[in-house]
Structure formats: C-alpha cells, structure tokens
Amino acid sequence: xxxxxxxxxxxxxxxxxxxxxxxxxxxxxxxxxxxxxxxxxxxxxxxxxxxxxxxxxxxxxxxxxxxxxxxxxxxxxxxxxxxxxxxxxxxxxxxxxxxxxxxxxxxxxxxxxxxxxxxxxxxxxxxxxxxxx
Length: 133
Description:
By secondary structure, the chain is of the alpha+beta class. It contains 2 helices and 4 strands, in the order αββββα. Strands 1-2-3-4 form a 4-stranded antiparallel beta sheet. A hairpin with a 3-residue loop joins strand 1 and strand 2. It is elongated and about 50 Å long. The mean pLDDT is 93.
C-alpha cells in the first residue's frame, strides 16, 4: 500500500531551541505508522559546531516491553540531526535528517516513509547475535 508522508512544519532557525527540536521530533514520530506496543524515549545528545552550520543530535530509543519482560531484550535507536545553516536567513526552517543505528543511510522525513519493519529487523538481529554468543 502507498503511504502518505505527513509533512512536519519545522520551526525556523531563529525560533529553534534544543527542547523545541525534541518536541518536533516527537511530533514527527507521532505521524509514523507504528504499532502501539512499541514504546520509545527521545533525548538530546549534543550540539556540533561546523563551519557552515550548527547540528543538533538527538536519539529515539525503541523497544517492546511486555508483561513477562518489562525490560526489552533489545532496543533499536533512531538518530536525528537538526541542521541550522549559517548562510540561510534565520527565517528559514531547520533541516531534519535521521538514520537507523544499523545503517549509514541518511533519510529525510519528507522523502521517506518510516517503516516499523526497520525497528523489528534491528532488534531481531541483536537478539540473534546475543544468542550466538
């Protein structure tokens, strides 16, 4: 089935704060088609100063707690970067990118529909790896 990508209206560079960035990442996550059994928490990791931009790094850590295992066997992380250009006007919206912990592929939320399967694959691979050890 074809998924409709819901665009998030990102804050402008001049209105950006670390907490506003985290809130907007939460807004983005709320548009993803993920079963309610998945729980996550998001956190700010660091600010990175580059020649042409400032980058704000965040992480959302996912797991499926159950009654039998309230602490999941494994978790899957999605890393977000919010980029504020030093050359564009401060009325320009921030840019947002994300990647999965197991991948180097960088995705833009407005170009790629998030898939629950990606989280499942990360967790299944971690559990399989743990069982082999």
